[in-house]
Design goal:
By secondary structure, the chain is an alpha+beta fold. The chain contains 3 helices and 4 strands. It has a 4-stranded mixed β-sheet.
Length: about 110
């Protein structure tokens, strides 16, 4: 890896792409071993002043992609829990509405 960072979310690694992408073997290793790795593509900045590179990288999104995202599994689990909670809430709302309509119907009969 080119750079290792300790973050509040754990350790991530940075691969810097200038002239060549990571090899397929390296990408497979990173994914198979769930090594959180972000690739930053600096190839378009060759022969640019460092100030230009620094300014451009203030918004890293267009120049980077996750080889293996540290958060894939955690985000999927979090989203699944949110979806399940919404489904449960919708089911409960449906059941309450059914009961309400049954009650209204019964009251209209008497």
């Amino acid at each position: 890896m080119d750079v290792g960072l300790e973050t509040s979310l754990g350790r991530i690694f940075i691969e810097v792409k200038v002239t060549a992408e990571c090899s397929d073997e390296k990408v497979s290793f990173l994914k198979n071993n769930k090594v959180p790795t972000l690739e930053v593509d600096l190839s378009q900045f060759i022969e640019q002043p460092i100030e230009t590179v620094i300014d451009a990288l203030r918004n890293i999104e267009p120049y980077s992609n996750w080889i293996y995202s540290w958060c894939d599994d955690a985000l999927k689990n979090e989203i699944e829990k949110e979806v399940e909670a919404k489904q449960n809430a919708a089911q409960q709302a449906l059941e309450r509405e059914v009961e309400r309509r049954k009650k209204v119907t019964k009251q209209s009969i008497t």
